[in-house]
Each structure stands twice: as C-alpha cells, then as structure tokens.
Amino acid sequence: MELTKPGTKFILLFCFAIVFGAAKVKAQDPYAAYRQGWLKKAEDLKPKLTETVKQPISVVTVEKDAAAFQGWKAVNAGGIDQLYNSAFSKKNSGIIADFGEHMTGYFNFTIKGRRGDMDAPLRLKFTFGEVPSEIATPFDPYPGTLSRAWLQDEIVTVTVAPSTITIPRRLACRYVKIELLGSSPYFEFGISNIEFKATTSVTTTPAALSAGTSQMIKDIDRVGLTTLKECMQTVYEDGPKRDRRLWIGDLYLESLANLYSFKNDDLTKRCFYLLAGLSAEDGVLISNVFEAPEPHAQKGNRLLDYCFLYNVALKEYVAATGDKQVGNDLWPVAKKQLDMIRKYAGDDGMMDYVKAGKEWWVFFDWKNDLDKQAVLQGLSVYALNQTYALAKLLGKESEVADIPALAKKLKDAAHKNLYDKKSGFFVSGVDKQVSYGAQAWMTLSGVASKAEAQRALKGLTGLATAVHPGAPYMFHYYEAALIESGLKTEAKEALTTYWGGMIKKGADTFWEVYDPNDEFKSPYNFYPVNSYCHAWSCTPVYFIRKYPEIFQQ
C-alpha cells in the first residue's frame, strides 16, 4: 500500500507532529478555561458613562509670565458673549474660550450666517489645551518621540451654514483656541453655542473632609478627585488626553483612591478581568490593554513591576471589599505572576536585576538614571508578602507554601547586600546609588526596620546626590513609605509641598510628570504632549482619606 512508502511515513509523522505540537502549545495556556468567562464578566461590568453639558465661562488671553507654570498664564479677557455677539473674522482669530475646569468628552459648536451668502467653504482650526502652555506653544516642527497625532489640534472645514458640528475625536481640555484659516470675503458668519459634552463613569460624591482640614489639603483632595474622575471612563484610563487606555500601574493607584472616594467597585473589577482575559498565553500579564475596536492587549508590552503590582492591587481590593469571588476567580493569575520572582531570584537571595532589565521593561519611574536593583528587590519582597496575604484571605496558603521562606530569603539578602550601616542608606547597583525609590521600597517591603527606615528617609532631604522621583508615580511610593515608617509630620509636609506645588502653579488636575526643578521635563522630548491629567497622580485622595489623623487635623 501507499502508506508503506518511506516518504509517506515521513509526511504522516510530520503532520502528527504539527497537530500534537499545536495541541501542546494550546494546553500550555494556563487560563484557557477561564479567558472567555473573564472577558464576559468584564463586558457585563462595563459602565454607562454619564454626560454633562458644559459651556465656556469666559474668554482669556494666554500671556508670557516667567513666574507661571511653563512660562504661560491665562488672563481673563471678558465674557463669552464677545465671541457670540460679533462676526468671526481675522480680527478676532485666535480667541481662546475658557471652560473654567478640566473636561473629558466631545466638543461641538454652531456656525450661523450673519451677512451674505456662503459662496465658499470656511476653514477653522481648533487647539485644545489642558494647561495654558499647550495653547501658546507651537506644535510644529514636532520634536516629540510619540505620535504627533496625540496633540489636540483639529482643522474643520464647514460647507453649509447654519450648521452644528461635533468634532468626532474625544478630547480632554480646559481651553479652546479658535483660528480662522480661510473664508469667503463676501460671507460674514458667527460662532455660537460652544459646548462640551463631558463624560465619566463617576456617579457618586465622596464625603466632605473634616472641618479642621487645612485649605491646602482640601484643595489637593479636590484636584485629586477631579483627576480620578476624569480618568474613570469605561476603564481606569492612565490619561484621558494621551494613551487613553488601561495600564496596570495606574489601575493599582486609581483603585486605591477609588476605595476611599467614589467607591465604584464594578469599574475596578472590570479592569481586573480585562487584564486577566487579555494576558499572554504563557500566563504573563500584558502591561496595558485597549478597548476598541474590541478589547485587546498591546502585545509584547511586558512590564515586570506592573505584573507584581496586579497582585498587590487584587489583594488590596479583596481586603477592603471582602469580595472573595473576584479574588478566587483571578487567583490563578496572581499565583502565576510569582513565577517571575522565582525565575530571577538567585541562590544568594538577590534578584538578577541586570538579566531582568535585558529581558523585560522594568519601569518604576520616569527617571533614566534610577538604578533598578534595590527597587526591584524591594517590590519582589512586597509582592510575595502581599500575594501570600491574598492567599490567606482566600484560604489558599497551601498553593503557595514556598512564599514565606522565599520572601525571607530575599529580605535577608537585601539587608545584607544593600544596607550601608555607616551612611544609613540602602544603596543600589555597582555605583551604590542612593535614591528616594530605593529607600521607599526597602521600607514598604519591610527590609528596613522602622528605625532604619526613618533614618534613611529623613536623610534623603539633606543628601544632594540622592536620585529624586521623576514623576508623581514614584512620589506616591515615597509618600507611602513615610507613612509606613511612622514619619507622619514628614508625610504631611511632603504631600503638601509636592502636590501642593502643582496647586500653586494652577493645576486643575494633577500631572503625569512633575519635577519642581524642571517644569519642562518630558519623557517624550516635547512637554505639550505630556498628560496634564494623569491617573497615577490622583493618590493624595487615598492618603488624605485613609489617614485623616495625619492629613485632616
């Protein structure tokens, strides 16, 4: 028979290898039985956004001011009626409408003829800004490293008047500049009914702070709540202007703030399930996911520290809400992420941060010169302990029985290798770098004793060479470490100085990047593309409301 021919046997063996090999690969997906259920739950939890129509409150000019944030300030120039009651022409081109608050949503306006016939199209340019410098700074030639299309300028061509036009792109802004690019000299028109349909999934109002709370703390809490509200869309977005998607690191911090403010547990659960359902087939979480045109992950974008923070966020949620159903559903994901700690933990108890850095994006902060050894070691210990705490809540300690010993091994190794008794600091890397991040994570992980933590954290402010946080993201962990170590006075002062610094510079929402010594800092080589409403900056809400004895006295 033909089947006995050697060539035929080879073909059959090859086919069997392909079939069984494919089956084997598929079987390696640890979540194959759960994914569709997780994604179904995520879809069922998708919130319906509330919409609020906003109108501009005034017209402003944007003027140079060396004392203002990024060198520009908005100055009131009268009521919005001066735009509505006059013909729009080259004379008033460049007028800026101010809505008086940050908004996320959709912009529309009405064009009406005032004199003559519309014998040619008219063309308008709209520039939307979260802060005054976005309105004042030319976007081109564009030097940034992210897509130029993130910048919020739109050219609209109108062919029929009267008409009401809605810009289809969702926007995030406070200010809108309107410029006339072209129109017929025989047609006079006006602009009216400027509106912004603002969206959010927030439907509740948090309790007021105690009467004795200082005005600055109240202002920080108010701006933090606005930041969180703007980022709470159909997922916890990182920034409503740019990126506009769900990242694990932002989810963790937003969920903390939400627990003590808006209490939208369904949004938190939706994000947990989305990230789990869209994880890689080897069980590793992808750092971020998109919702449209259908939910999908940014394939290949693996961020090591974010994988560990998923576990921390899940534990915090279950502990705060008692929702063990979500914890049990997603326990396989949390348990799987610990494999990366086991992989990079050496026999000496030290994480191989060099190898991890070559194989992963290891983030921690927008700070290029931050050495990652100590922060990775600290987070690894913290993630192990927090995951074991989650296991205890769920009655699953037996499934991760190796965690306590592994955590102790990493903790002891960190203290032995990274603590400099003479200086009182935890150091990192071959250059023995001292950073705020290292002291923060050695404190939060419990590697540092309370006395050691206090000495290290207090000593930072007097050490000129210490590497400072590059963004509010890392500053959150520094703030948490101050509280964890019992430095309550220093914690209040740090929060008031750092986030209060943004308040003093006119912040309506807290920014993605804030370095008090460099207002133009941008990870993307162009500061207007920075996000000026960014999720990871909202956490004063969490601190102020969780620790009223520190912040509301």
Describe what this molecule looks like in 3D.
- The chain has 19 helices and 14 strands.
- Helix 12 (373-394) runs antiparallel to helix 13.
- It has helices at residues 6-27, 35-44, 81-84, 132-136, 215-231, 248-259, 265-277, 304-321, 324-337, 339-344, 353-359, 373-394, 403-418, 436-444, 450-460, 472-484, 488-504, 540-546, 548-551; strands spanning 50-54, 58-64, 72-76, 95-115, 122-129, 153-158, 163-166, 171-182, 188-200, 246-247, 288-290, 296-297, 419-420, 425-426.
- The chain folds into three domains: 32-49 and 201-297 and 468-553, no CATH class; 51-199, Galactose-binding domain-like (Jelly Rolls); 304-362 and 368-436 and 445-450, Glycosyltransferase (Alpha/alpha barrel).
- The strands form three sheets. Strands 1, 2, 3, 4, 5, 6, 7, 8 and 9 form a nine-stranded antiparallel β-sheet that branches. Strands 10-11-12 form a three-stranded antiparallel β-sheet. A two-stranded antiparallel sheet has the order 13-14.
- The chain is α+β, with helices and mostly antiparallel strands.
Radius of gyration: 27 Å
Biggest β-sheet: count, sense, barrel?
A: 9 strands, antiparallel
Kindly give the count of domains: 3
Rounded average pLDDT: 95
Brief sketch in words of this structure:
This protein is of the alpha+beta class and 553 residues long.
Relevant terms:
9-stranded antiparallel sheet, 3 domains, 19 helices, Jelly Rolls, 553 residues, 41% helix, Glycosyltransferase
